[in-house]
Amino acid sequence: MDVKEYKSPVYSVIAVPVEKVCANDYNPNVVAPPEMKLLELSIWEDGFTMPCVCYYDKENDKYIIVDGFHRYRVMLTSKRIYKREKGLLPVVVIDKDLSHRMGSTIRHNRARGTHSVELMTSIVAELTRAGMSDSWIMKNIGMDKDELLRLKQISGLAALFADKDFSIPEPMMPAPKDED
């Protein structure tokens, strides 16, 4: 039996012109301005120590960010870093469909960052519309049943609950009063 050896993406870092990289439209990670300044200083002082994780869109010849949006932003906004790096961003490529890329983004972010509840709600809605089950969502983006339920409730989208059985309880009748 020929077993193909797994090779983690980090062993295949490539230098990509930053102009060929673009953000995804579902990243719920938020970084405050002071932390962005610290990230720029970190990249200036230490260089890029972690590549951006991207999906390669062959049709458009673009690298879509799965993780590393803020490192990408630093490359675009810091003239000194852009110049030193010759406009090249370190990237590793993963080949996953959109739902799995969303899961990857969330896992990367939740391991170290903060999230926008609004964007997380949007992602849950998108994954639900894509046919992903609650158990798939909980497993792949690292949330428990209560958190998933809260995000679905916040969204207010009835479609997110379409596969659930609900019943309306009968109103309780008041206990009869003793009549004298």
UniProtKB/TrEMBL annotation:
Question: Which SUPFAM superfamilies is this protein grouped with?
Answer: ParB/Sulfiredoxin
Q: Which GO terms describe its biological process?
A: cellular response to oxygen levels
- InterPro entries linked to this entry: ParB/Sulfiredoxin_sf (IPR036086)
Protein origin, superkingdom: Bacteria
**Which Gene3D superfamilies would you find in this protein's record?**
Conserved hypothetical protein from pyrococcus furiosus pfu- 392566-001, ParB domain (3.90.1530.10)
The record ties this protein, via PANTHER family, to: TRANSCRIPTIONAL REGULATOR, TRANSCRIPTIONAL REGULATOR-RELATED
Designated name of the protein: ParB/RepB/Spo0J family partition protein
Q: From which organism does this entry originate?
A: Candidatus Phocaeicola excrementipullorum
